[in-house]
Design goal:
Helices cover 0% and strands 50% of the residues. By secondary structure, it is mainly β. The chain has a domain at 1-30 and 208-217 and 229-305 and 313-319. Strands 1-2-29-28-27 form a five-stranded antiparallel beta sheet, with no helix packed on it. The protein has a four-stranded antiparallel beta sheet with strand order 3-4-5-6, with no helix packed on it. β23 and β24 (261-265) form a beta hairpin.
Amino acid sequence: MGSWGAAALVAGFGPVQAQPEKLQSWKLHAPRSTGIHDLAPAPDAGVWFTAQASGHLGWFDPRTAKTELTALGAGSSPHGVIQGPDKAAWITDSGQNAIVRVSWPDRKLQTFPMPAGTPFTNLNTAAFDGAGDLWFTGQSGYVGKVTVKTGEVSVKDAPRGRGPYGICSTPGGEVWWCSLAGSFIAQIDRRTGESTVVEPPTRQQGARRVWSDSRGRIWVSEWNSGNVSMHDPQTKAWRTWKLPGNAPKAYAVYVDERDTVWLAEWTSNAMFAFDPRTEQFERYAMPRANANVRQILGRAGEVWLPESGTEHISVIRTG
């Protein structure tokens, strides 16, 4: 059975308000240590996760607490996973230097290796554009695309070299990514594959992950600065907020269906929900030390969290 815990309620700005959110957690019961890294809701009631240490796609069923593992191939070390328009799991597999598709629920594997001669890209995360093609980042300094209809994989050198990390798509189908080492965000020209750099206002901020809200504004979790920032491509304007606490480290960012901005903060081992309307943070303490949440994804009413430091999966139900 999962464990329940009430959310810790601390406002960063403004009055503290009681919230209905609840956090539930489960210990992964797998045949081996998985090294859980990223996760994504599956098209059924389950949740996928990348088992980076064991080379598997994991599937967790919160109704039964059952975990199943699908081997991805020799040398696999998966990093990111998302659900595609085809309801399959799409995985950035740095160990195989390939994108791996796992159809669902029949679990058939299809591998899209990097083009012949491509160096180790250190594949990170991926997002689908408005045409249904997959774009991905490689921390070694690459941005690439899988043209889904043909299976063709193309890779380009990223601006300023190594660092491409988080990536997201907007409601309009555009694709943005960020560079952790380069401390910038960038928009991809979907026709040419070239990227245009956009500089955040804070220097050397360590942009780690990006996510779009319903208006196409790009939210950035800044690892080095401890900020969350927002860029509006329409007005070119930026806004920046410091997370509460001492020396915060903002790893992941996710914007839910209510346009609430969720952030994984490592220094205080907590999740923060930021309301852009009130500019208030609310803090949700993780129930185990060193949870190390590396990705946040969700479905309506649910915000899912992989605890890479504890081999747990947690969910905050927003009701």
